[in-house]
Amino acid sequence: MNSRGSPLPAEEWTLCLFATWLADDLKSASIKVYLSAVRALHIEQGLPDPLSGCLRLQRVLKGIKRCQGSSSDKRLPVTPAILRAIYSHLDLSQYDDVMFWAACCLAYFGFLRSSEFTVPNGATFSQALHLSVHDIAADQRVAPSRIQVNIKVSKTDPFRQGCILTLGQGRSPLCPVEAMLNFLELRGGSAGPLFVRSNGVPLTRTYLSERLRRLLSDAGIPGNFSSHSFRIGAATSAALAGVPDHLIQTLGRWSSSAYLTYIRTPRSLLSNLTKSLC
């Protein structure tokens, strides 16, 4: 609200507060995109450009960029070997561990963003926004060979057209079909979030990341792993397996070549490249 109690036109101080609030979760470049949307809204309403001549706002944006730094993404990828380490440290006689393993497999093989299969901390589950049990379907009742996942909302889908992912069988235990069917048998078909813990709380990004790091630490693999490590690992593994670039982009639903920033090249491969130059 501006000093007159109206949302429009937005005052510079309001825009500064908006930018600093966004900085908790977004990079400076993404904040500028949000501010551009505010500008577009004003122009559509016949109002002057609210970003023009805003020197304080520019200083705030520069400060955010400086604080965030320009370091590259240091999150580590979850590879097939790490997935096996996770599996070996789970007790699959426990519901929560079966649920966790299914979430890991779906996230990895589906190239999922954390927002596509978890519910934000403190948020109420929304059937229209979040992944629900009814968004999963098998190709057949008996011995299904693939599952379909309905992603209703995605970062690169601003108009919420949705998309259907098709996941086939892997090599047990690294098999999204097997993991999901085992989980769904325990979970049942009651409406609600797909991934829900035994205490009734939906799976959140924070819980997933913390549990992942704790499991891997117990397995002797400490590091900066997070819920997004599955997506990074899927892109990396696909690239190393020789999957064509355009298919990686399709599998991960990237709208540009941004997927290249997710690919982590092993040091051993880099060192071997030296021989090819001789």
From TrEMBL:
Q: For this protein, what is any one GO molecular function term?
A: DNA binding
Q: Which Gene3D superfamilies match?
A: 1.10.150.130, Intergrase catalytic core
Tell me one GO biological process term: DNA integration
PROSITE patterns recorded for this chain? TYR_RECOMBINASE
PANTHER family assigned to the protein according to its UniProt record, in alphabetical order:
P CELL-TYPE AGGLUTINATION PROTEIN MAP4-LIKE-RELATED, PHAGE_INTEGRASE DOMAIN-CONTAINING PROTEIN
Q: What is this protein called?
A: Retrovirus-related Pol poly from transposon 412
Q: Which organism is it from?
A: Paramuricea clavata (Red gorgonian)
